[in-house]
Probable membrane transporter protein
Amino acid sequence: MYGLDVLPLGGLAVAALFAGFIDAVVGGGGLIQIPALFQALPRELPATLFGTNKFSSIFGTSSAAWRYARRVEMPWRTTLPAAAAALACSYLGAMAVAWLPPAVLRPLILLLLIGAATYTFARSDFGSIHRPQHTGRREFVYALLLGGVIGFYDGFFGPGTGSFLIFLFIRFFGFDFLHASAAAKVVNVATNLAALGFFIPHGHLLPLLAVMMAACNVVGSFLGTHLALRHGSAFVRRAFLAVVSVFILKFAYDTLQ
């Protein structure tokens, strides 16, 4: 399969499972899955590897969103407008790559990640109580703005989208970590759909490999969602801080290279 032997296939399967687990809790699975694809298939076009990653991810994210929706009272009045705006703006973000290199965003994203981690560490009650802050038109407008900005970012650059969504849902809408994670999955499905709307028609997909990784992603998603639902917001908060700390180290390393 695509010049792969059993060992690289096994590595990609493990990476997809772990990525699905991380994505289901706090997002960020792409930082696991994408490097694994580039390592295993160095001769493939980057767009093909990104398309394969998105195809795999959308199944795990959809599975997590479905499981959260069955167990958590979903904030649909916020989530659906955010998802719609993200769907539209993700495609615009992908188009913007043609005139602005994504690498110029690395220092800014690093600062935003540090800010999010510092804010969360400093406020021990941050995301501990689900207390929605907005209703009516204001909720709708804020959701559109949040979804649009994050959707554009995901289409343009992408890493850490799920974690940014969780932080913003808590900071601007008063969600707890569990509800914010659940809402983030729905928005992530929308941004992944927008990306696949570009990748699949242009042939940027390895179908058999994508299906295999999607199955592993769903298994990881099941495990991650189970733990998040069982242990609640306190568990998601700890996972969020751990993953964002890894993001900061990764972005710092890449920026200073």
